[in-house]
Amino acid sequence: MSNLSGVNKPSIKLSQKHLDVNDPNLKIVLDDIQGNILKSHGRTHSRHIFLKFTGKTEDNRHWLNQFASKLTSAYKQHQTSIDYKSTGTEHLFTGILLSNSGYQALGIDDFKIPDDKAFRAGMKDLDFLYDTGPNGVHERTNNPLNDNPDTWQHPFNDQVDLLIILAYGGIDSDEILCNDYLENEIDNIKNSSKKVASILSIEKGYTLRNSNNDVIEHFGFVDGLSNPVFFKSDFDYWQNKEGVEYYDPTAPFDLVAVNDPGGFDEDLSFGTYVVYRKMQQNIRGFKDQAKSLASEISQKTGIQIDTEYAEALAFGRHKDGTPLIQSTKTPSNNNFSYLEDMKGAKCPFHSHIRKTNPRGDTNRLNGTLMRNERSHRIVRRGISYGSKNLNPETEWTDAGLLFLSCQSDIEQQFLVTQCGWSDNSNFPLDNTGHDPITGDQNAKSSDNLWQHEIDGKVIDLDFRYKDLVRILGGEYFFAPSISFFKNLIDES
Ligand code: HEM
What we know:
Layout: H1 24-32, E1 45-53, H2 57-67, H3 74-87, E2 93-98, H4 100-105, H5 117-121, E3 129-130, E4 141-142, E5 162-168, H6 175-193, E6 197-206, E7 208-209, E8 215-216, H7 232-242, E9 258-259, E10 270-281, H8 283-301, H9 307-315, H10 352-356, H11 361-366, H12 370-374, E11 379-380, E12 383-386, E13 399-407, H13 411-422, E14 449-454, E15 457-462, E16 469-479, H14 482-490
The protein binds protoporphyrin IX containing FE (HEM).
The site of protoporphyrin IX containing FE has 27 residues, from strand 10, helix 10, strand 13 and helix 13.
């Protein structure tokens, strides 16, 4: 526990926004919270190393305590980023996440294990009851994710205790050098952990880019445009770039940070819950279905629609990231809401970005308080994996997204977004349909009926994208504070 006490003890308010990384009062907090939570680590190549402890509790603790000296704190991440920008020097990012079984294998006292109920239950537990109903529908249901863990890939069908995230490389880095560097680090982990853990599998992630150098996902859409913003410097960036009058990207510290009961001080040690989902993407299937949709719209309206536009209707953005709805006079990527499109004529209500961040729709349609809607936001830190072929001949190539989201409450953030919104065909309105990208792909409900406006002409459509994304496995983790790892030896 903390030696800090008295009047000079630094502090952070959980509701604090606009964090200043140079605020001396915050240094102690930013030194203790891992990187990639409050801001993305920004590296271009990563390795997700899944491990299971095999040693005795004390040996497991000892090894993890030593290995954790490599962790990248939020503060260190900031410093390495400054160094990279000024000198081009690349720095390894290291993060460590534990599952509930990982805490057990370390013999951590129950009161020091984070108590989020989903985290404690684990992603494979299909019997645990959750409440993900939006708009005050409070019915607890089991397995809201509709997952079938029996079909999951290794290692997700096994017990994963620990996930180590390594990331390296900048936008101009040589791919081979990055991979060599990371493989060398993995060899070091293999050697040092031999007696205490076995490596179950390793996922390789990398940032895909379009011709404009923007980060994209495998369907070809620019990704990572909208995420909650915690630092003042990031807020200033958006404000100067395109303004913030239609959409406020800021978020309070506790949207993502949660007190770590195993950290050095109950007011200063923080971690976050991490949702990990390996999501395979059906690239060919998406293109083929979009082609059918384009031809249906063209026939109905007499206006020639191309496949790319039909694809954009599924996301709510064009491929280059431009939102289908523009609230401002100047083009913007994030400074927009759906206020002027309350019939879903321009941006379908079921499109991926409208479902997963309604930007006030729940307030306008159902009177939900804005702060309530915004409290469900998640922080996305995913990265692509697999084949780089964005135009494959066949469906279901080995390509997709290693989805990672950070939040302070798994049920109220990830599960509400995924189950209460994306999978729910009656959100935000009855018969809205599922999110075509990540909504429940096995759902038997009726097709998506939606209105759409083309050249001022409003038409009704009856079309449903299906089987675009498949879940290959996942787990709930916690990213503990750095002092938690330091305490592993003192307290054993
Ligand atoms: C293979 C799976 C997925 C793909 C290809 C994908 C792709 C995208 C793309 C291209 C965007 C637009 C760029 C942006 O706004 O940053 C986006 C936004 C977003 N996605 Fe996903 N996504 C996937 C899975 C998920 C999942 C599982 C969730 C949550 C349960 C999710 C939540 C969000 C959110 C919250 C946004 C931002 C919406 C906004 O603020 O306007 N995504 N996604």
